[in-house]
Every structure is written in structure tokens, then in C-alpha cells.
Amino acid sequence: MHHGRGYYAELSFVHNGDINEKLKKKEKREKNKGRIYRIWEKYGVIGLGMLSPLIMGAPLGAAIGISLGASPRRLILWMSIGIIVWTISLTHKYLRV
User: Above 60 in pLDDT, residue 6?
Assistant: First the structure.
């Protein structure tokens, strides 16, 4: 049987390695949140509603907003405003001759 200090050191190493892997995965997930999560943190429902139609599309933006805890009514309002603003501004930009 193996009852020396080495056994406990191995267990400690395996356990710490497990924790390090979990921390690395958490850091990677936080980096992957990226642009949308930063918009949510900084500007809330208004920023997400105004920018998500342009960045990723309204349906995906709505799903992400709801999953982040946004009020569905406020999110729909601001996404509608965002869609109107972007439609007018991009149409105006590209139809200028």
C-alpha cells in the first residue's frame, strides 16, 4: 500500500490541477462573452436593443437579452427603435448618389 507523503502530494496536485483547468475554462468563457456582454454591462437594455440588430440580428439579440435578464417589453421596444434607426441611417447612406 502507498501511505506516504507522496500519495497526498499526488492528490493535492490532481485537485489543484482540476481547479486550474476550471479557472482556465472560466477565463475562456469570459473572453468569449465578448462584445455583446460588454455592451450589456455598459449600456444595458438600451444599448443591446440599439446595437444587436446591426451586430447579430434581432432574433439572436432578443434571445441573448432575455437570457441576460432583460425585460422582454423593454427589449422589444429598444430593438424596434434600433431597427428603425439603423434602417433609416443605412438606407440614407447607400441611396445617396
Answer: no
